[in-house]
Request: fold
Amino acid sequence: MKGMRYISLFLLLAGSAALNSGCSSGPSADELAQLDQLKSEVESLKKEVAAKEAEKESLETQVRQKKDELAAAENNQKLTRERLKSQR
Amino acid sequence: MNTRILHFAVALLVVATVSPAQDTIPKEEWQKQISDYTTQRNNLKNQLASLTKESDGLRATLAALDKQIQSTRDETLALTGATDAARKEFERRLQDIESWVAALLPLSDQDLYVHRFEVDSMQADKDRLMKERIASAERYFERLQKIQSKIDNLRATLAHINSTEESEQQYVVRAWAKYHDCLWNISKKKQIYDNPFLWPKIWQANRNQIKDPDIIRIGEHLKIPAAGGLTTAEKNAEREYWSKRHT
Reply:
């Protein structure tokens, strides 16, 4: 009687295991690998975007500085003209 | 025994049924994640392309600005009408004065006092440069202004030295018995020269009242010249003293 109970429990679990693994609707190993690859591609793109943003910021700062430098050079030219006029 | 085997088989089955269920995700969830990550990847690629384009544009702007700055500077220099050779010559003279000023600035007050007349020559040289057309160019004008400011500093230091000299230029001789005042000891005093070997300076400055440097009188007012190395006249006076003593 006890043996019968174990046998029926065994059959029940074996059946559910077969259902869970053989008949489940989960993705295949290839599909999971595809997802992993996509995730790592996204991570790497995020890093590239962050680096590009930093580069753009630095270039914007350099442009601002060059504009100031140009304004100073133009102002110097104006002052030079004035000084030359007063020298005459 | 059979019961034990059966227990073991049941346990194995439980593990076999539960573990694959923990590692995997349902197909629908996988599909959803694939779709989300694909969208993210495409958005990031677009963002990267746009950022690259913007950075390239900024680099081009930088290059254009550099060109514009250089041409503005060249134009400014051309306004003065100076040739390349004239610019080089002007640059050389400017550097000479800059080095000259730089050599005087770190001198001690005493040494600067010795070189005090050079400050006037420096000023004259700077003024000559300032009168040239090329000096109007900002790059030179600013440097000339800096030189002027340094010359002004040197003049201020010299003025201070002179005022100090004026206030300390006299020493009243006190009794030998109590203070041991003699030219050697006076020269040795910290507030005088802090160097006894400079005593001929005091003697030379007071030759009209000190005939013999070994004899000075209490209450006598001695002129104390500026510190510095012995001049030729002072060295000669010292030589004369020693030769008299040995004869």
About this structure: Chain A has a mean pLDDT of 83.
